[in-house]
């Protein structure tokens, strides 16, 4: 390709500072260095974690940055030492690396990795390395990916190669939201057949958790949200019951306890709100109830009374649904192609990269499940 080994000038949405609209700019994307892959981004979705960094974390050290981490694209070129990928491969960037060598990668107990951007830049959600520049300034790469751009450069340990027949404007959702919710149910909570579940928050992650509970064989799946318009959508993914906390004067944990003879077997918090995290835990049955924190936040402490845990409940967290990305993402792409996992049903809006601020506004107002930004032609 004519661009191999050269700096690419392309369009990207740059967040210059917190809590301000993104600006469509021409940026420079450097060629991939050793063990790196340069990707032409075909489609990317807007996730609440992008909004959390832009609107809630308010860390000025995390700017300027190109956001976006839920995407799919095509390999444009590779750096030295890359043998797993070649130009033309369809891929999904991974915000959790999988080096394959560290103690976490070698353990079946976790999908964490000691390498990648999180090892050096967890506080700013970006690596200290950068391949993007704009107007002479270095631009941080959010979660090591930065997919609100026509091109990006990612370390090969944070890329998953997928089926070449997969539609990239659909499977991009498997780069974060769908895997995160679905895996939290099947991998982290380990929902059991015949069990009773409650899912708090019916955004894309919550709906994917509902889908995971159904896939695991739960007999009762209670969808909890303060927006009743989301209940019909939840039914599509397998929810059997619906509760709006605003309809009740009692605490939601008490409402669910009364509905389920003492509490649910499994609960999943998919909001990123510490108060909801507590409610989700306290909605579980004593003795064996398991509550999983899935929603992303790092601003406040979460708390509960010790007796909640002493009584036998388990409180745990999940990131990216517990999937080791290089293995799990291609498998879920195949499951989607085999119609075993829903993806299309999450997409409520399709826009272009130029409309990224409109997409962010839709998510802020709770008017979308997932908006896909079409960045480049497939």
UniProtKB/TrEMBL annotation:
One of its GO terms (cellular component) is cytosol. Its cofactor is Zn(2+). One of its GO terms (biological process) is formaldehyde catabolic process. Residues 17-373 form the Enoyl reductase (ER) domain. One of its GO terms (molecular function) is zinc ion binding. It comes from the Eukaryota. SUPFAM superfamilies: GroES-like (SSF50129), NAD(P)-binding Rossmann-fold domains (SSF51735). Gene3D superfamilies: Medium-chain alcohol dehydrogenases, catalytic domain, NAD(P)-binding Rossmann-like Domain. InterPro entries: ADH-like_C (IPR013149), ADH-like_N (IPR013154), ADH_Zn_CS (IPR002328), ER (IPR020843), GroES-like_sf (IPR011032), NAD(P)-bd_dom_sf (IPR036291). Keywords: Metal-binding, NAD, Oxidoreductase, Zinc. Belongs to the zinc-containing alcohol dehydrogenase family. This is Alcohol dehydrogenase 8a. It comes from Sander lucioperca. The gene is LOC116042447.
